Amino acid sequence: MSDHTSDPKRPASVDRRTFLKRVGAGGASAVIASRLPAPGSAAAQDATLRPDPAAKRGGTLRYGVHTAPAHFDVHQSGTVANIGAQSPMYDTLLRRSPKDGQTIIPDLAWKWEISPDGKKYTFHLRKGVKFHDGADFTAEDVKATYERIARPPKGVVIPRTPLFATVGDIVVVDPHKIEFRLTEARPKAFMLGAFSSGWNIIVRKKTLDENQGNLRQVMAYPGTGPFKHVSRKDKEVWIMERNPDYWNKGLPLVDRLEVYHMMPFSAELGSAFLSGKLDYARLLDPVSWRKAKEMQGVTAAAFNQSVIQAVWMNMKKKPLADVRVRRAMHLAMDRHTLVEVVKDTAPMQVGGFVYPFHEMSTPRAELEKKLGYQKDIKPAVQEARRLMKEAGYGQGIKGLDFVVRDANTFKLWAVAIQAMLKEHINIECNLRVVQISQWFDEVGGGNFDLGISAIVSSLMDPSDYFSAWYGKDGPQNYSYWTNPGFHDLANQIERELDDTRRKAMVRKAEDILEQDPPLIPVSYEQIYDAWNNKVHGQNPSTYFGIYDVVRWDQVWLA
Amino acid sequence: MRKYLARRAVYAAVTLLGVSLSVFVILRILPGDPLVAILGVEGHAQMRPADRVRIMADLGLSDPLPVQYVRWLGDIGAGRLGKSFFRGDTVAELIAHRGPISAEIGVLALIVSWLVGLPVGILSAFKPNSLSDGVARALSVLFIAIPGFWLGMLIVLALLFWFGYKAPIVIVHFWQNPWQNLQIVIGPGIVLGLAQGAYIARMARSCLLEVISEDFVRTARAKGLREGLVVLRHALPNALLPVITISGVLLGFVLGGSVAVEQAFGVPGLGRALVIAVIERDIIVVQNLVLLYAVIFVVVNVFVDLSYAWLDPRIRYG
């Protein structure tokens, strides 16, 4: 049985590659296990995330991020509006290290084991952890939390539910040990990624019971996290203070956390940071970010976000059901120009059907040699015209209804895409700008030809989003796309435990998607952060998204 | 007078009932699903039909529309004004917290509009077609033409890039810290006030031009009164009625304009809350705020009408 722990004699963290290698070397695990400190021992308890030895304690961190949640239930949310403010009050079973945003390290589980067949995950939980209301944290809380995530009650909708589709029984072995029994093995990186997701905060069983499993209108339900709720002004600021009883001794390092509600990419956020009213700003607009980069005493970083911006094509409509027309539209996009078009509005990057920065996707240099991604678009346009002619649409298509989400980036792109389709393959479309709530009504009801929007995934792992974005009847397969070859392959990818074979399969899947596009990838989002240099302990340059490393316990102020 | 007041109260009540009914119906027939904002894009995509039924019932949206409408009126009567769909905050709390800021901006805009508009109008009227009149008229047209939110953004950017200054980013009430509070409201108040001041200047000019050609003004001059006294004591009071009327109407522009101007200045007032509520389709918040704006508009206009009798002895309400 492979075994992972926070033994301080070994490096405190295990990156995913190393972890997978170690999993393969099953025999070594017994040796490692023999060196582990006893569960609950001081050594084990202290080993998760250590405060920087140079760190100073105290002070108030003023953090600006989108934090006007539509409700308070982090599990039911899919937006930074919740996690941006609430996550410092909670812990997860495992977490991504703030050092790199990738390595999985212990959190409330100080040690975990995976059975050789990959169908049983056992977590050893820390002892002496208390919720903010003084109650003891036990395995019953983990079970209640994950039962709810994996099998939400009626009226509760949790976007991460599909991550735990293979979780069968969740068994409390003792108050500090819990087993997740899977009906079918899944890649360990996928499962551990799911357990480390910042969304899957541990909440009290009692809290869930008292609220019939729905926390949408419960503002400050108790967590075990490094900060405790103090006060909140809707759409203004959420104030938290240091949890003096936090189980991870020495953390958090700041006494007070003020999370200010600032709309993403807004001038308001940019001006608040540039005028020194914030110490740290997340989701800055490109203009403010560039200005911040030039400022003395300020650091600015860009990192990848778990969002694809795309155009969906309604395959229930005749011309768009033709694979040649869809491929032609895909090839007619000048993606580098599309990134340029919004460069002052939101940071973007070129990509295909798989996260372009993921280790399993086609490397960027290789991707940019493919038709549709080259800087010189002439060959792609030639091929697009040939396909249109072959499909019987050599004269073009007129009157497509293009539903555009009312946001600056989508409106800018829609105009550019409209022009590209007209100029390159003589497709004429009429733009119809609608509010987000109407966009989903129209697209969900099939009342569109083309629609531009953005969707997110929880994990970078393709198995998380292949079924949601491209799966037959996938919840975000707005194009109503089906391709039996792809669906079979996606099923195999979900179940393949060998990393190398899995990577080859993902590449094959990419090829299928290129030839039979379920959507037109427009670009992949990036995040712009900037902070005053007095803020230490956080550098998001290698993070993936803004949903995992969001607890601020390791941050300190000089 | 009492009869008149009673009649106006009835008219006002009917108007407000009409507004409430209109906004209630419009918000419910507009396309768009409020559950997108509640559940998010991913959650909405995963929602099962049974989830939708349960959530709509929880929100009170599955009841028949007349029931929903009567319940809302009941909430207004009880002073609760209903709860936000999302976070459970009551609209009354929202108004209590943000309302004072928006009210300050409105009052400040009104004061600025009079302080700027009236002197400019007087100056123009007493030296018609002079250079100062030309400049005043050109500036009036300019401030009428410039959108408030755009001017607001320019001011915010200029203060930021030239002086590294930005007003406080959360609400500070006057009674908590008057200086910080002033920093929040002064920008939007001036921008809104200048636009309204331009209208007032134009109205004051044309009214004064009409009044100063009247016999009683000539008589005042003939008996040797100083020009300042002629203006202030004789001409201006008689020219003010239309200016007061337009001020009541302009209040509507101030209320409407504050939505965009608060957004531009990043002021967390009621206007901004309305914008966010519209985007989120938080219909309980939207319908209550629209009704609140309608109440303010109606009440102010009643007061404007009543002020006529006080300002002009010839007018009597019976």
Structure in words:
The complex is a heterodimer of chains A (558) and B (318). Helix content of chain A is 31%, strand content 22%. With 558 residues, chain A is an alpha+beta fold. In chain A, the strands form four sheets. In chain A, strands 2, 9, 10, 11, 12, 13, 14, 15, 16, 17 and 18 form an eleven-stranded mixed sheet that branches. In chain A, a hairpin with a 7-residue loop joins strand 3 and strand 4 (104-106). The longest helix of chain A has 18 residues, at 408-425. Chain B has helices at 2-29, 34-46, 49-59, 65-78, 91-126, 131-145, 148-163, 178-211, 215-222, 227-265, 270-280, 283-311. The radius of gyration of chain B is 24 Å and the shape is globular. Chain B is mostly helical. In chain B, 80% of the residues lie in helices and 0% in strands. The model of chain B has no long low-confidence stretch (mean pLDDT 86). Chains A and B meet through helix 8, helix 16 and strand 17 of A and helix 2, helix 3, helix 7 and helix 11 of B.
List keywords for this structure.
heterodimer, A: 558 residues, alpha+beta, 31% helix, globular, B: 318 residues, mainly alpha, 80% helix
Write the layout of secondary structure elements.
The complex is a heterodimer of chains A (558) and B (318).
Chain A: E1 2-5, H1 16-24, H2 28-34, H3 42-46, E2 60-65, H4 80-86, E3 94-96, E4 104-106, E5 109-114, E6 120-125, H5 139-150, E7 167-174, E8 177-182, H6 188-196, H7 205-210, E9 227-233, E10 237-242, E11 256-261, H8 267-274, E12 280-282, H9 286-294, E13 298-313, H10 318-321, H11 323-331, H12 335-341, E14 348-349, H13 364-367, H14 378-390, E15 397-405, H15 408-425, E16 427-434, H16 436-444, E17 450-456, H17 462-470, H18 484-495, H19 499-515, E18 519-532, E19 535-536, E20 556-557
Parallel strand pairs in A: 2-11, 2-12, 15-16, 15-17
Antiparallel strand pairs in A: 1-5, 3-4, 5-6, 6-8, 7-8, 9-10, 10-11, 12-18, 13-17, 13-18, 14-18, 19-20
Helix pairs in contact in A: 8-9, 11-14, 17-18, 18-19
Chain B: H1 2-29, H2 34-46, H3 49-59, H4 65-78, H5 91-126, H6 131-145, H7 148-163, H8 178-211, H9 215-222, H10 227-265, H11 270-280, H12 283-311
